[in-house]
Amino acid sequence: MLFIKRTLPLIITFFTGIIMIIAFFSGPALPSVKALEDTFPKWIQVIMSFTMLLGAFSLLRINLNKISRKVDGWGYSLALVIGFLTMAILGFLSGSWPMFDRDIKVGEKYYLLAENSMSDRLVTVVGSSVDEEGNPVVDVTADPIPGQPVPAPERAPVYRLKGTFMAWINSVQQVLFQGVFKAAQATMFSLLAFFVASASFRAFRVKSKEAGLLMGAAFIVMLGNVPIGNLVSRLLSYIPLIGPYLDIAMIKEWILAYPSSAAQSAILVGAMLGYISASMKIIFGVERSHLGGEG
Amino acid sequence: MSVVWRPPRKLLPILALFLCLVSTMVLVAQQDEVPAATVTQSEMTEITEEVIGDDGETVAPDEVPPSTPETAAVDEQAGESLSSGEAATTEPAAQTLPEISEPATEPVPFAAQVEPSETTNAPAAPDAPDAGAAAVAADEVNKSVSETAGDESDKPADTAVAVATPVAEPAKEPVVDAGQQYFDMKRANVLVVILTLMAFVSYYTFHAQRGKELFIRRISGLSALEDAVGRATEMGRGVLYIPGIMDMDDIQTIAGVTIMGHVAKKTAEYDTPLFAPMTRSFVMSVAQEIVKQSYLEKGRPDAYRPDRINYLTDDQFGYVAGVGGIMMREKPAACFYLGTFYAESLILAETGNAVGAIQIAGTAEPSQIPFFVAACDYTLIGEELFAASAYLSKNPKEVGSLKGQDIIKLLIILVMIVGTVLVTIAQTEYGAGTVFATLAENFMRLLK
After folding, report:
1. Per-residue pLDDT tens for A230-263?
2. Which residues, 6 or more positions from B31, have their beta carbon under 8 angstroms from its beta carbon?
3. How far is the alpha carbon of B386 from chain A, nearest alpha carbon, in Å?
4. Contact B362, A190 (CB under 8 A)
5. A191–B347 C-beta distance less than 8 A
6. Chain-chain contact of B314 with A55 (C-beta, under 8 angstroms)
7. How many CB pairs under 8 A join A and B?
8. Partner-chain contact A202 B375, CB within 8 Å
9. Which one of B175, B235, B403, B408 is CB 3.0 to 4.6 Å from B333, fit for a cystine?
């Protein structure tokens, strides 16, 4: 058991790490080795897709457990399970299932989905053919609007034509995805604006020399990013001798291009060395606490 | 009495430096295989893009107006005056490149003078009737900077110095059959860094294992780790731990879950609830294993609650919403954010601050460090995140690796200083065309 839990992962890590290092440094004379640089990340994607199932089962198990035990806040778990199942079912249904697709008949009415699947419209199929790449396509016309000329036929791929039920499923899914999920996501992101304000309020309290420096630099950068910064620069330019040099936008650029950029580079150099060192420790089994237990 | 042979460990840094030297020599040797005319001025062309104007002012190439028939006479006069000796006094020799043009003939298009590729393809004025002049110009272009400086005084009197810019063919890669290259020479410098790092890390690891005390500076964030868990215990509240939002293929996540093991030992010791909502299911299963092992080691397997280390969602802001909810409901007294973070960093840290938690954060993402510094009590900056495991475990192997990293950093600083000094000297009129310019050029090429 210990072999499977500790030794085997170490062996796999060692060999995989060494192979990747060799692939990284190999030249064009070793194309099959060089190709591993692209192949291994694809393997990671395959493995990661399996872990989605692991996550889904874990999520459902924990929340169903909370609901069954009626623990505090079980209502949130119920909302989560309902949302999870609804989106999963709608997602599966609105996906492409070629084996269940009925043949498209010329003269019948279908719903043509927009390219982003966010909307659909009723069309009549007037012909079918195959495009240059061999994919089946159809010629459709929209229903004529009284008083307006008959719209010209347009070409669309077959997979975008849906029957009434599937079009309805797609609409519900889009309403939930775009109207609820995307909106909630944007709301969370928008909160950042308020959090930035509250965090900077606390950070800019001048408690030490460093905090004062931070506040000064931040003030200049903020001023340089808003139109009033130009006005301030113009006013400052009337100061004799040093006035012309007090261009807020220029000072802001200097702060960003030199001190800030230098500090970021220093952090990156240190971090990269940490990356290399940590990777080496993991490959050679010096660091093994991520497998559980002492490193 | 058995004699055990031990490798000369003290010689490892020397060995590492030797490796560096050999690799450098190999690189330089490969560069030298290229004909001298093709390797001149690769970096220096970038460095000295500016053109010295007639009045001695530095003018960007774009700003120089193209010659017109009206200005040709003026150019000619300027050329004559420069060729009669003033050029040597007003302009650095290496920054001037003679270009032969017939006086009072069609002016040379400026683009052909400043663009290295065009210059080499059509060194002289394309419409210039004198083919001999074009050939001479081509020869001049292919000469090294020092040669050019030397030839300045030998020019005929009617030679006009039209543009003072280092025009030369960009350095070409060594002519090696790509099909026979088993090693990617472009990545040789990376190998040098890795080998040197490994040598120093091995040396100091052996050193530490033999019992030599290696000093690690105090890292406030890590020293406060135990206090934070203790505070949560005293307040009867839990601890929240987030190892970033990326998967296990990110080294910061591995560093995050490694530190999580140490935090879990403390929570097991103090019997404090540990909440760890995850954004990746793979990280969740690894974290569960680590925490379980930590609780086992502390003799508290009964206190381990796998449902507290749960998966929420892969979606960035969905995860933030979920963690925010957990924070508001559970009100943890200590929050740890150690791993890779992006836009969610400030939302998490501010929510933690709102519930009155002591917060320790750490990431190697430069863009997120300011947010953590502003909103958290302690922040591990960049490499400190990777040093945390060594700092907490005091494992000689890991402590030795830290020391090795520091030595490499010292070397990098030295390289930066030497490079800066060389390039700065090479840009001055005293350094251009001298050994400093060549050194700076080779130095920059090696770094690339």
Report:
1. 899 999 989 888 888 889 999 999 999 999 999 9
2. B39, B171, B174, B442, B445
3. 6
4. no
5. yes
6. yes
7. 198
8. yes
9. B235
Contacts of B282 in chain A (CB under 8 A): 47-48, 51, 54
Q: DSSP 3-state assignment of B334?
A: strand
Q: Are B309 and B291 in contact (CB under 8 A)?
A: yes
* Strand-pair partners of A120: A113
Q: A184, B317: Cβ pair inside 8 Å?
A: yes
**CA-based nearest residue to A136, from A111, A107, A160, A170:** A160
Contacts of B402 in chain A (CB under 8 A): 277
The domain at A102-162 falls in which architecture? Roll (2.30)
Give the count of beta carbons closer than 10 Å to the beta carbon of residue A163. 14
**Which of B258, B281, B337, B381 is the best mutation test for A, with the most CBs of A within 10 A?**
B281
Residues of chain B numbered 62-91 and touching chain A (CB < 8 Å): none
| Digit-coded pLDDT (tens) for A23-32 | 999 988 888 8
Residue A221 makes CB contacts below 8 A (sequence gap 6+) with A252, A255, A256
**Chain B CA closest to residue A286:** B397
**B41 touching A, CB under 8 A?**
no
Contacts of A50 (CB under 8 A, 6+ apart): none
Which residues between 263 and 282 in chain B have a beta carbon less than 8 angstroms from any beta carbon of chain A? 280-282
**Residue A52: partners with Cβ closer than 8 Å, 6 or more residues away:** B281, B314
Does ipTM come in above 0.90? no
Choose the mutation target among B185, B251, B417 for the interface with A, i.e. most A CBs under 10 Å: B251
pLDDT, position A159: 83
Structure tokens at B212: 């030599």
Q: Any idea what the Cα angle at residue B326 is, between residues B324 and B329, rounded to 5°? A: 110
Give me the mean pLDDT over the B285-297 stretch.
93
Please answer yes or no on whether A291 and B289 come within 8 Å at the CB atom. Answer: yes
pTM to 2 decimals?
0.72
A62/B310 Cβ within 8 A: yes
Q: What does the pLDDT read at residue B17?
A: 63
Asked if B393 reaches chain A (Cβ–Cβ under 8 Å), the answer is yes
**Predicted confidence pLDDT, tens digits, chain A (295 residues):** 678 878 888 999 999 999 999 999 998 888 888 898 888 889 888 888 888 889 999 999 999 999 999 998 899 999 999 999 999 999 888 877 777 667 888 888 888 888 877 888 888 898 888 888 888 888 888 877 788 887 888 888 888 888 888 889 989 999 999 999 999 999 999 999 999 888 888 877 777 888 888 888 989 999 999 999 989 999 998 988 888 888 999 999 999 999 999 999 989 988 988 898 888 888 888 888 777 655 5
pLDDT confidence of residue B13: 61
What are the residue boundaries of the structural domains of chain A, listed by start? 2-71, 102-162, 192-283
Q: For A34, phi and psi rounded to 5 degrees? A: -60, -35
Within an 8 Å CB–CB cutoff, is residue B349 touching chain A? yes
Closest CA to B115 of B74, B166, B149, B78: B166
The answer to whether the CB atoms of B382 and A271 lie below 8 A apart is yes
Determine whether the interchain pair A48/B282 forms a contact, defined as Cβ–Cβ distance below 8 Å: yes
CB B427 within 8 A of CB B48: yes
| Coil/strand/helix, residue A10 | helix
The B residues from 299 to 328 touching A (CB cutoff 8 Å) are 307, 310-315, 317-318, 320-321, 325
